[in-house]
Design a protein that fits this description.
Blueprint lengths: L1 H12 L8 H10 L4 H32 L1
Helix pairs in contact: 1-3, 2-3
Length: 68
């Protein structure tokens, strides 16, 4: 279910939730409509992808600020 993991990671990356807090991430994903089984299976990988996405975004924003 790579598609579910990817969708979850986008949901997490676009949020302000603390990705190291498993309870917060699970609650956010429940509120977003994912079921408990999907969350249990994919939450950790989705959070890892979301952290990477946030890092890339921060780097891009830093470059834009330096050149803008």
């Amino acid at each position: 279910m790579v598609d579910v993991t990817h969708a979850m990671s986008i949901t997490l990356a676009q949020s302000s939730v603390d990705l190291s807090d498993e309870c917060e991430t699970a609650l956010l994903l429940l509120e977003a409509g994912y079921d408990e089984r999907e969350i249990a299976q994919h939450r950790h990988e989705a959070a890892r992808l979301a952290r990477n996405s946030r890092r890339v975004q921060a780097v891009c924003e830093g470059r834009e600020a330096a050149h803008g």
